[in-house]
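Checked the freezer inventory, then went back to the computational side. Two predictions to log before the end of the day. The first one is the construct we discussed on Monday; recording sequence and tokens without edits.
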Amino acid sequence: MNMQTEVTRSGLLRTIFLSSGAMLLVVAVVLSPKEAFDASIQGLDIWWKIIFPAMLPFLMLAQMLTAFGFTDALGVLLGPLMQRLFRLPGQAGLAIAVGMCGGFPAGADTAARLVQDRQITAKQAGVLAAVAHFSNPMMIIIVLGAAFLHQPAAGYFLLGIHWISGWIAAMIGIRLLPVGRAASIGTSSSSDVSPNLSEPAHTQAHPISSSKKPVVPRHTLWQRMNHAAREARSRDGRGFGKLLGDTVSQAVQTLMMTGGFMIVFAVFIRLLSLYLTPGASVSLWSSLLEIHLGIYHLSQTSLAPVVMIALIAAVLGWGGLCSHLQVSAVLKSVGLATRNMIDFIAIRLLHGLIAFAMSLVLWTPFSRYSTEVWTTFQTTTNIGLPAAPQWFSLFSSSSSLALLGYAIPVAMVSLALLLVIMISLSGLTRWFNERSSR
């Protein structure tokens, strides 16, 4: 009875807090309608001109590859790497690659599809969402590097730091946080082979089945991949037309949710800067809450180049509260608990700290070997901050949109190259495991 009373009080307090916050937000919008309208247009521009065209192909591609059985076949290849680094089954490799090439919440959306297809558990999806949470590489290279910092080389530097620090943070967080230990329970009993082969837990429970062990080497790697892909395709059973229609509708639904979050947070950030901290830097709330606005405002400050790059890398690693809520909304359908999101935020903080430290150490030697980057920062760090609603006029020209359209197939090719690299690393891991077990 006492526990039930505490739960009721907690729900009541949450309701009062959320309703009061919503009322204050409505009052602020009524008092400042022009600022709220400009901020909503700003958020809409970001979503329509960057997020929508950059994420749509990856959301559709990930769902179609899963339906065709590619994820199961890939899981046979990536099993050793995923289990050694992240304590996840091999099927998680596609979600990580999609997250690295498509940005958030594409990785979390792929993880949710894997749970619905019963390839991973809900706890493993929480771990996978943290591992696969990366910013869109086109946004980092084209928007941040070329448009904001006026130098694509800086964008490539930040992308490399973002990817490397993300993997390091995920490997550390999984081994320290409870969510990683809970997810590894389901992984320890799974194997990178297809379901037609006997599993270690089964052999231990029934010693009689030990006589079947010599059958396992007869199944080659290609046979296991083919068997896993055929079983997944037969489970799905949808024709190409039905699959394409479902893929488009689900991807657009996810993107509409993402756009709604971005517009609301753009308005929220503007009102916070206007009423709560009128004298503070405009990059304070935007860096904490919405990553795209945050990196723009940071790129226009008069900080030293190494500090500016380090802060931008930290914001990219943190991802912003807006992206965290997007991931939470995507994973809510698979039963992700609040505790898992707390661990997710902890990994985000760790990612930001590692990216900040790596940028402080590596930016100076990088800038020495890139004269153009160094000259650009020496001449642009004293530029004043323009009016916020005007910043996205950079992308109103047809040339910028054509550049984004050209980058989409390049990013899709990078997905294939990234999968090839991950498969090669998994092969080396498998070879090392076999040599060490002898």
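The second is the one RB wanted added to the comparison set:
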Amino acid sequence: MIKNVMFLISFCFLLSSCKTETPPPPIDKKAIVDSTITAFQKTLLEQQIDSVFKKYHFNGSIAVFKDSLPLYRKENGYSDFKRKVKIDSNTVFSIGSVSKQFTAVMVLLQMEQGKLNVTDKVSKYLKEFQIKEYENITIHQLLNHTSGLNMMGGKLMFKSGTDFFYSNDGFNALGKIVETVSGKSYDENALELFKKAGMTQSSTGNIFKGSDFASAYLGNASKFEEVPNMPKRLGGKEIGTPAGGILSTIHDLHTWNNALYSGKILKPETLKLFMAKSAERHHAIFGKMGYAYGIMLNIGKPNSYFHSGYVKGSPSLNIYYPETKTSVIILSNIADEEKGKGLVFKPHIEVKKITDHLENTLNQLRSGH
């Protein structure tokens, strides 16, 4: 299918560059080419992502946007299995660790106001880090998981700054730093950030009051068990709001991607710091990747920023391809944990492979013309 797309789009480029003997009124050749590429993108995505929905009986929502243009969108299944409430465009999902990029941005916004620096030691702001074991950990090391911290109170996994170990407690500490230097709760800071980005349906699990929340389930459509106390449990010690307690929608995450990567949230130099690879992660499901501040990066092509998220029953993935300004967002509210995380994230992995391949194809065409 990709080869066919490349041939047809290449033909379109050639056709658009041909000269005619009697010049017609001016034609916007670039617009013709762009619209042709977009049509093929839509066709390809519809065929291949629809097959993912069918293959895995995927219960959730998947969308692909190129800047503000929707290329693909589909919702399937239920936000409430007991009452048979269908997922729709307003459904609010728990996004798990996709929340970490919001926490990272909150930290950087405080830095822009001169209230902290990422090179500062965490012990400057939090008493629990004022012990010999933790005294040299920096904010930078919490942001990219190189602090060596696993769980608060435990021994470090390695000397800070020498390796990578993914720590939810590290990001919850970052949330506390934001509260300390801003004088406001994490929830208040989150709401301010959502407003700045133009996100109208997002919240934290602590303060959510809407009626469109997708209840989380373990199992499958025929045999399921509801995860109790959602979304309030996201703010508890087991997870923690800064590490994984934000709720959002397809539309709001698309709005967030566009606002963040276009420079509407952070200053250019701060955004560059946010996106800069400063560690490497060997993810059990997605493989080897770069890590920046609460965000993962492809190693190799295509260039992309992404993060997966998982709290019980809610696997998610948010991808942004900067070269084409394309967002790919996958949200769900049921997971068959007995089959293992690898199978839970199989639809997400397949969609990422589809969109990575398509992105590479488009970049090859662009570089060839």
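For RB: The CA atoms of residues 156 and 272 lie 29 Å apart. The first strand starts at residue 60 and ends at 66. Let me know if you want it refolded.
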